[in-house]
Write a structure and sequence with these properties.
6 helices; about 170 residues; alpha+beta; four-stranded antiparallel sheet
Length: about 170
């Protein structure tokens, strides 16, 4: 790991490209400068399963200075001590299935005859065309990029309202 010292502004300014400085106050906390002039704070830890992880706290500069980054590293180490995996959570959020992807899977399965009606039969082509149009015009534009787990009841109600808001349907 190298030499450990309590990281301060002087240590941050002295970092050269490719260099890492480790903190003596919080185990696993450090700062590194890669090829550019940007310095990032990080915390290195092991999960309950023994996996090694790097969690980037942020770039040096407001709000991240050595003291605030050290406090955040302490908080993250506390989460790890409770059995959580902060970096794993971040990865799971990035890899989460979006509403658009789910709609695409639904249409693929429906066209393959895997989505059944309440009578146990495959959906007809006309019903699939209606489903595809509703997905393309109403669901994907509003919720397509959002993670499925992040959709709320209020979000689903937005898709059900006529667009533009306040316009009445005739009939």
């Amino acid at each position: 790991m190298g030499e450990r010292k309590r990281i301060g502004q002087r240590h941050i300014r002295a970092l050269r490209p490719g260099q890492v400085v480790w903190d003596s106050a919080v185990i696993g906390f450090g700062a590194r400068r890669q090829r550019s002039e940007v310095v990032s704070y990080f915390v290195f830890y092991r999960t309950a399963e023994g996996r090694q992880r790097w969690q980037t706290i942020g770039r040096h500069g407001a709000p991240w200075v050595p003291d605030t980054a050290r406090d955040e590293a302490r908080r993250l180490r506390g989460d790890v001590a409770r059995g959580e995996d902060p970096a794993g959570k971040k990865q799971a959020i990035r890899k989460a299935v979006t509403v658009g992807e789910l709609c695409d899977r639904y249409m693929t399965d429906a066209k393959a005859g895997l989505v059944l009606t309440r009578f146990g039969e495959a959906k007809k082509a006309s019903t699939l065309a209606i489903d595809e149009g509703r997905i393309a015009r109403h669901i994907k534009p509003v919720l397509g990029r959002r993670a499925v787990a992040a959709v709320t009841v209020t979000d689903s109600e937005i898709c059900a309202t006529p667009w533009p808001p306040g316009r009445r349907l005739v009939g």
